[in-house]
Amino acid sequence: MSALYRQVCKKILDQIASGQRKVGDRLPPEEEFASELGISRSTLRLAFAELEASGVVRRRKRAGTQIIAMKPQPKFSMATSGIQDLLSLGRNTEFRINHVSTVHSDDIDFPGEHYSETAHWLKVCGARTMNDDPRPFSTNRVYVPARFAGIEPVLKTADTSVFQTIEATFGVSVNRVTQSTRAIACPRKDADLLGLEPGSPVLQIDAALYVQKGELMELSVAIFDPSRFQLYSDVSIE
Amino acid sequence: MSALYRQVCKKILDQIASGQRKVGDRLPPEEEFASELGISRSTLRLAFAELEASGVVRRRKRAGTQIIAMKPQPKFSMATSGIQDLLSLGRNTEFRINHVSTVHSDDIDFPGEHYSETAHWLKVCGARTMNDDPRPFSTNRVYVPARFAGIEPVLKTADTSVFQTIEATFGVSVNRVTQSTRAIACPRKDADLLGLEPGSPVLQIDAALYVQKGELMELSVAIFDPSRFQLYSDVSIE
DNA sequence: AAGTGGTCTAGACCACTAC
DNA sequence: TAGTGGTCTAGACCACTTA
């Protein structure tokens, strides 16, 4: 026989599955529910902790315990040693800035939504090299919203990445990263920098970095030489 | 003042940071530690639960509570509605099998390690179509180890994916997915199937699916038409 | 304002597993 | 096999949030 609090979990999940309780319903207050189930409040709380961790209920003071899902939500956790890895910046890489300018939101060349939240953006163009190899393995174009444009003077000394410069300067940290990856024929400009034939297949990764509450930190477009770079991901479930 | 058990967390983390306790050390047994800290065992357990959840300690019966990291490990959780999304199989897609054969492990064309765990593998070649568009948007080559080769007769009726067929047939579920993505020049064979010019840039995704304890479920090589497919990822930290 | 979850205590017995 | 974490109880007070 499994632990009592696990039985309680199962019981609640069964009640949800059978339609006896529905998503959106509120469960009784702890004290009441505990005596109703004939168990102590502590035990019930163990069960609730499990249901909360698995995304089945949400608990808020005064608002009670609310059912928000029918089944435990599988969690996809990414094996990553840091955002560096997530953003495909190797350990021994260096970022060299070629050009910095201020642009209008209309001039932003980034797929998807129109990022018109601020009129002016800082545009940073550069390239990334690895292990003292003078030939870069990626070219980068980064757009920084006006809010963080204050990094401009600091950028001169930055050799890691724009996002790390912003983190250090403003005391914020990246909270969320969305990426879109595709294969394209390499444009001439990037091909020249990467030492490739124009039109050869390259990987383009468009990334949006956010700090908190969906606040945008930067948009980034990177083009990678496929012979020296692959995108890895390692995801475990639950 | 924050909760007592949080203060205990912080205290332990501080002791680790100051070198007073080191990674690999064992913390005292709960009862002893609790009285040493002048708190109840329940409160200490709340602190331990937090430290365990954040990856700082590992707890095992009889072996005690061991420090395994100096700081709370940030968690990278991937926003995904399911493995389907993770593996870039759209909702309205269909998998059509072209060819099934048995091959030697030597004949496996998959980058990385030599997968010699089993001598014989089932090789499934197919393509994936979307929304009744007869022209596939991806070609697929899947290798299934001998252990799951029993799906062969069932494959005839499978139109979703090899991994789902294995899951349904053997009652297992995918536990971990590693992927490697790169841009390549499209081989002639795949170009014919996808309706592309040979040599045009395409996305190749090599994936390894595991069930549990690192047991391999399948190796998969997929080539995507970049005009109709992009790889998305959405990762939140902590 | 009060109902709710959050925190905390002091005990007890149990079950497993690593020594 | 015994030391350890796991489970469970019955109580108490508190702080917050939202109805």
TrEMBL record, chains A, B:
Keywords, sorted A to Z: DNA-binding, Transcription, Transcription regulation
Extract the SUPFAM superfamilies matched here. Answer: Chorismate lyase-like, Winged helix' DNA-binding domain
Alphabetical list of SMART domains matching this protein: HTH_GNTR, UTRA
* Domain (HTH gntR-type) ranges: 2-70
| InterPro entries in UniProt | Bact_HTH_transcr_reg, Chorismate_lyase_/UTRA_dom_sf, Tscrpt_reg_HTH_GntR, UTRA, WH-like_DNA-bd_sf, WH_DNA-bd_sf
- The domain of life for this entry's organism is Bacteria
For this entry, list what GO says about its biological process: negative regulation of DNA-templated transcription
**Under the GO molecular function aspect, what terms does this record hold?**
DNA binding; DNA-binding transcription factor activity
The name this protein goes by in its record: HTH-type transcriptional repressor YvoA
Q: Can you name the source organism?
A: Granulosicoccus antarcticus IMCC3135
